[in-house]
Amino acid sequence: MIPVSREAHSPVAAILRRVPAALDENGRARARKALMRRDKRLAAVIRQVGPCSMEHRGDPYRMLLRSVIYQQLAGAAARTIDARLRAPWRGRYPLPAVLLAAPDAQLRAAGLSRQKIAAVRAVAHAFDAGDVTNRALRRMEDEAVIESVTRIHGIGEWTAHMLLMFSLGRPDVLPVGDYGIRKGAMQLYGLRDLPKPKQLEALAEPWRPYRSIASWYLWRVADTIAPGQ
């Protein structure tokens, strides 16, 4: 058995439809059972890891700011910068208007690069102007969320997928560009190379409508793979 770790335009104009509710503990249990029936290899991982403990990390605005800060940084460095940025506001992310009013020198002193300063200001501007709102994002279908937030400078598809999974709690998201998920799939299914997006989508087809949960288990697989393997 593979060793795995236990931890580890205006959007207002978009068509708002009924969206899947975030999975609670009972919902995650149903998802595990469904995934185990449909995929024997994934079932072995699920049995070894146990219940999915995927956590939600706050509202969309804060999640987007956090994602920008953490992009392309090691965890320890990102946590330091994140804490420095929030320090002047008693450990909280500033409201959009407050962040827009903060001088560049203050943001640079926190450790943000010029590109990241532009990105966090773009996020703040989108929310301050009402182009994007927490309420609207919660009511949108997944594709509409992706379309809305990727219009913000510095926000790409990967960040949109993380937003859907960890802030909005959507159950059927497959981050095809995530290295950890691709690496986990390569190890689990004995692939010679990291799967391309279309190959990963084909592997994940039986997991619908619980691809977020399956992705979480693939991360647990990837957690134990040494660099270079």
In words, what does this structure look like?
The chain has helices at 25-38, 40-49, 60-70, 75-86, 96-101, 104-110, 114-128, 134-139, 142-149, 157-166, 179-188, 197-204, 211-222. The chain is mostly helical and 229 residues long. It folds into two domains: 11-55 and 172-222, Endonuclease Iii, domain 2 (Orthogonal Bundle), CATH 1.10.1670.40; 60-166, Endonuclease III, domain 1. Helix 11 (179-188) crosses helix 13 (211-222).
Task: Chart the SSEs and their pairings.
Layout: H1 25-38, H2 40-49, H3 60-70, H4 75-86, H5 96-101, H6 104-110, H7 114-128, H8 134-139, H9 142-149, H10 157-166, H11 179-188, H12 197-204, H13 211-222
Helix pairs in contact: 1-2, 2-13, 3-7, 3-10, 4-6, 9-10, 11-13
